[in-house]
Design a protein that fits this description.
alpha+beta; nine-stranded mixed beta sheet
C-alpha cells in the first residue's frame, strides 16, 4: 500500500472538551490534514519536545528514549496503519542495527516518540483519503464527496463525547451545518467529532 509522509502541523487545546487536544498532521508537499484528538499528557509530551524544553525529571517518553538508546535501539519510522471504528492504530519501526522490529503503540505515544527520535511519520493513502481534510484556499473541506456538503468516512482517536454537544440528537442536515461552522472556525477537534457522528450515520 502507498505510504504518505506526514509532518506535525499544529497542536491546540480543545475548547469543547476539558483535557483534550487536537494534533494536526499534514501531508508533506500536499494540502491534506489529518486531525487526531489526543489526551493532555501526550500533548504535553509532544509540545515539550517540539519546544525543546527540559523537564526537571524525565517524562515517560524521555525514559523510553533513554532506555532504548542504552541498548542501541533506534526508532526510525512511525506508521499510522489502520483506522477502525474511530480509533487510529500506529506502530513503531525499530532497529538495533541488525534487525528491524515493529511494535504496536497508541498514535499519540508514537508521535511523542517520533519527535524524540527524529523518526519519520507515515500513514497509508487510504487513511488520509478517508479521514483527512483537504485545504482549498483558506477553507477546509472533507475529502469524501467534495462536490457536495462534506460527509465523513473517518474518525478520531478518542471516542468520548463532548460535554454540551449531544450530536446523536441532531439530524444529518444539522450535523452538516455544525460541521461547516466548525471548519470555518478551524475547530479541528469539534469538526472531528461531528465527522465521527456522520460516519456512524452513513455506515448504519
Amino acid at each position: 500500500m502507498k505510504k504518505v509522509k506526514l509532518d506535525i502541523i499544529g497542536l491546540s487545546y480543545s475548547q469543547t472538551q476539558s483535557g483534550a487536544y487536537a494534533l494536526v498532521l499534514g501531508e508533506v508537499n500536499g494540502r491534506r490534514r489529518l486531525p487526531i484528538i489526543i489526551g493532555a499528557f501526550e500533548a504535553q509530551a509532544i509540545a515539550i519536545e517540539i519546544e525543546k524544553m527540559v523537564p526537571s525529571r524525565p517524562l515517560t517518553h524521555d525514559l523510553f528514549k533513554t532506555f532504548a538508546q542504552t541498548y542501541n535501539v533506534q526508532i526510525t519510522e512511525i506508521l499510522i496503519y489502520n483506522l477502525v471504528e474511530g480509533v487510529f492504530f500506529a506502530k513503531l519501526i525499530c532497529t538495533d542495527g541488525e534487525s528491524i522490529q515493529e511494535i504496536d503503540a497508541r498514535t499519540s505515544d508514537a508521535i511523542a516518540l517520533a519527535v524524540r527520535f527524529n523518526a519519520t511519520i507515515y500513514t497509508y493513502e487510504f487513511i488520509l483519503s478517508s479521514a483527512g481534510i483537504v485545504i482549498e484556499g483558506n477553507d477546509f473541506l472533507f475529502l469524501e464527496n467534495m462536490d457536495n456538503i462534506p460527509k465523513d468516512q473517518g474518525a478520531e482517536d478518542i471516542g468520548a463525547s463532548i460535554p454540551g454537544a449531544n450530536y446523536k440528537s441532531l439530524s444529518i442536515e444539522e450535523l452538516n451545518q455544525k460541521l461547516q461552522e466548525a471548519i470555518a472556525e478551524e475547530a479541528y477537534e469539534k469538526a472531528a467529532r461531528i465527522r465521527d457522528e456522520l460516519n456512524k450515520r452513513n455506515s448504519a
